[in-house]
Amino acid sequence: MTDFHYFAVPTATDPGTLNPVYELLDFPIAMGKAEDIVLTGPAPEKPLVDGREVTDPRLVKALSVPVELDRAEVLDRSSKLAGVLRAMGVVPESGARLTFAEDVPPLARALGVLAAARIGLVVDLRAGAPSDSASDLVVLHAIEDEPVEPGRASVRVTRSRFEGVGVTIGSETANLDQAMRDSRVEFAAVVPLDPQRTLLLSDDGDLEAGTSLDWYRTEVLSAS
Asked: Hey, CA dihedral for 138, 140, 142, 144, is it positive or negative?
């Protein structure tokens, strides 16, 4: 297992606490690596600026390139999403699970996985994972809502990275583009986790916090 920076140091009777996202995002930024590119995505089909679709052909050409996010933005967007989930009442300790519909873009999916780990929320990536309205299920999926225009005091002029994506919890659905740009929603702090805390359910088996670092590095982040 890769060494962690523990929040609570392990002892003979206590396994300590850690968080893989802290190792991949928070700690490297503190060490001066905020500008490293760690997540990439395909070129957008419809380039946006401040949540609005670009129509100028010159801008469309300039913006139709693969997306590259540095570590600072990945931390910013994933901790914001974790804050949104907290604000919507998601309690990881209650047994809640995060799943993704097939139509969720890769970039939003990666940020969602990191947000979940930040607060200890289990991610269910198993084939055929339930996507119904169970009260303990948090589902990210595509929605038809138009991107939210900036202009209100609560909506920041910034890319949400979740344009066209919604989150459904039970019978309630929220537009993540709006929620992610709402300045009233606080960012979530990283949560210390027991090394044996399950973070991922997959067809290859479950993954615990203490053995998950390499998986997040190779399967979620594009470069780290």
From this structure: positive
